[in-house]
Each structure stands twice: as C-alpha cells, then as structure tokens.
C-alpha cells in the first residue's frame, strides 16, 4: 500500500436528506479460508544498517497476488529491497509481490529481502504482520461465511443497480457509518473525481478504464464513525479507519485483496487525527478528508483529482517516484493537471496486472 501526503480538512455538517430504504440482500460468498505465517530474520547488521529476510507461507486458499504489511517500532527504515516492491510511510511498511512470485498455493511459500537503516541501539522484530489484510497468526480462518446477509444502502436518489458490475472495471464505494447522515454530495462527488481520473488516463495513455452505473455504490456501515476511527487494525493508527472499511467491504460484497475482477475504490466518512489512506494491489482506500474533498468540502478540487490519479496509479501497479519528477506518482500530483506520466510509467500500467482493464 502506498501513501500520499495527508491534508486534514475541517468537515461541515452533512446535509440531511430523506432516509434511505435499506433492502436486505443475501450475497453468494465464496467463504475463502485465509491464514498465513511469517518469519522475519535479521541476517546481518553494520553501523547504521542491517539486512533482513522475510518469509511468507500462505496457509489459506490460493492467492494470485499478495501484500504484506507491518510496522517498525524503533524508527527502522527500508532502503533497498529485492523480490518485492517495498514502500514505507512513517513506521508503516508495505511489501507487494513481484511479477514472478505473486501466486501462492495453499501452503505455498515465498520470500523477499531488504536492507534497512537503524539507530545502532535497538532493532526489534515487528510484532505482527498482515497478508492481504489478514493477520498472520499461523492459523486459518474463513474470511467470509456462506450466504451472509448484507444490507447495502438503496437510496431513492441513487438506486444500486441489480446484480454484480462487469469485471475489469473500476468499482467504487462510499461507506456511510451509522451515525453519518446521507448526503448526495458524497456519491456524486466521488463519481465526478473518478470521471476526471478516467479522462486523465485516456489523455495520458490513449485508453482508459471503465466505470460502472452507478459509478459509486453506497454501502451502509455496521458501526458509528468512532468505531472505525478507534478500533485498532494494524500497529499504526494511520491505517485503522481504512483497513476497517476495506475489511467490511470485502465481507459484505465478497471482494478480495487483491481482486482480479475489479479495481476497488473505497472511501469512508470517518476521520481521526492520525487517519490516512493509500493505494496498491488493485485497491484505493481513503478516509474522511478525501471523501470530504470529493464532496466539495475540502477546497481546491485539483488536489483531489490529482490525488485520485496518484492512488489509482498505485492500484494499477506503479510505485511512488523517488523524487518530485513532474509525474503524478510524486508530489507533482498537487500541481494537477500540470503533471504527466512518464513513458516508463505508461508502459508499466499497460503491461501490468491490470493492463487488460484499459481499452
């Protein structure tokens, strides 16, 4: 999962509209078993640096791609990696499979390594890891239950289309906590940001991704906004809101991470002081300040357009740029629309795992 610089905006009270009528739907879920075991070994240390190897064993159903996350506790930093794309923001680290080691059968294993920096005093092993959003405890649990009743929002003004959206499309969601009033600005605004991103990708690549009708599926959350903000999910509170949202969307809508059927964009109206978001592995997960920005509450819309282009780039497989280089995969996205993909980035998107989504 890759991050972008975070801007917190003050949210105004949402306008109250007519109460949506909720219709209970029974999803046909695949009840995948999920579980993993991780070994983390520091092989060597030197002044200011160390080398480590991370081994992954998939104990659950086969996966076609993986994202491993952990947090450092003593200020360690990743400086170089191999056999995975590794990024870091603060203490939070995300490793995404390389093109050749993403498929893991049940009991299949892989490994990657990295060099890092440390303070020459303390270099503790991370205490927990997640693989595709599932805690690696060495045991296996089902990620969903067969025929789980779910309650997606059906609003009089934004009815959800019956059935499942076509595959190889970008599928978007606004998750509304139980204590947040329905506000049409949110699904409309998120849809408009995605349409602008769709236009930009066509401008840059000569082809673009498909959106669905409706563009944004409104999903009633199971909890008040404070639950998403205060319920730990990973070691770094930066991720709590968006991980809680992502896992609820996966459970309710039988989604996967990564998901080869759709690129999924989730936004939630919940925001703590430490909340953030990011993209990677076919997902964009964003917290309340992004939802507010899309709804027109967060100031300059070009910032939110550029941010969505940036995070979709991560979802399609691009890493962050190593410098502010004029491309939207760097801080240059703040200058949107005066930013452009490099030829190498265009090639990587179209030849990457989601290249078939572009036409």
Automatic annotation (TrEMBL):
Domain CBM2: 29-139
Keywords: Signal
GO MF annotation list: hydrolase activity, hydrolyzing O-glycosyl compounds; polysaccharide binding
Region (Disordered) location: 140-164
Pfam family, one: CBM_2
InterPro entries from the UniProt entry: CBD2, CBM2/CBM3_carb-bd_dom_sf, CBM2_carb-bd_dom_sf
PROSITE patterns in UniProt: CBM2
One annotated GO biological process: carbohydrate metabolic process
Keyword hit for Magnesium: no
Signal peptide span: 1-24
SUPFAM superfamilies named in the record: Carbohydrate-binding domain (SSF49384), Metalloproteases ('zincins'), catalytic domain (SSF55486)
Protein name (Swiss-Prot/TrEMBL): CBM2 domain-containing protein
Species assigned in the record: Virgisporangium aurantiacum
């Amino acid at each position: 999962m890759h991050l972008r610089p975070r801007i917190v905006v003050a949210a105004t009270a949402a306008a109250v509209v007519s109460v949506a009528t909720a219709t209970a739907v029974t999803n046909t879920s695949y009840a995948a078993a999920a579980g993993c075991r991780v070994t983390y070994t520091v092989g060597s240390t030197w002044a200011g640096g160390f080398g480590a190897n991370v081994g992954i064993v998939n104990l659950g159903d086969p996966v076609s791609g993986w994202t491993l996350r952990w947090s450092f506790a003593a200020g360690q930093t990743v400086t170089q990696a191999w056999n995975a794309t590794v990024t870091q923001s603060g203490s939070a680290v995300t490793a995404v499979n390389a093109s050749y080691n993403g498929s893991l059968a049940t009991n299949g294993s892989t490994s990657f390594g990295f060099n890092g920096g440390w303070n020459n005093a303390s270099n503790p092993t991370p205490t927990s890891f997640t693989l595709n959003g599932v805690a690696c405890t060495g045991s296996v649990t089902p990620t969903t239950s067969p025929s789980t009743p779910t309650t997606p929002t059906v609003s009089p003004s934004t009815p959800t289309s019956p059935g499942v959206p076509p595959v190889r499309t970008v599928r978007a969601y606004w998750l509304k906590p139980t204590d947040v009033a329905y506000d049409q600005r949110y699904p409309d605004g998120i849809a408009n940001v995605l349409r602008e991103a769709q236009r930009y990708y066509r401008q840059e690549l000569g082809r673009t991704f498909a959106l669905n009708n409706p563009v944004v599926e409104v999903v009633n959350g199971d909890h008040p906004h404070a639950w998403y903000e205060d319920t730990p999910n990973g070691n770094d509170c930066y991720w709590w809101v968006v991980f809680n949202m992502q896992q609820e969307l996966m459970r309710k809508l039988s989604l996967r991470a990564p998901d080869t059927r759709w690129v999924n964009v989730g936004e939630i109206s919940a925001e703590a002081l430490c909340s953030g978001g990011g993209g990677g592995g076919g997902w964009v997960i964003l917290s309340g300040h992004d939802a507010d920005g899309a709804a027109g509450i967060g100031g300059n819309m070009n910032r939110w357009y550029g941010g969505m282009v940036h995070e979709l780039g991560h979802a399609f497989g691009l890493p962050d740029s190593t410098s502010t280089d004029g491309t939207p995969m760097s801080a240059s996205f703040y200058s949107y629309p005066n930013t452009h993909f490099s030829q190498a980035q265009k090639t990587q998107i179209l030849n990457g795992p989601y290249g078939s989504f572009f036409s």
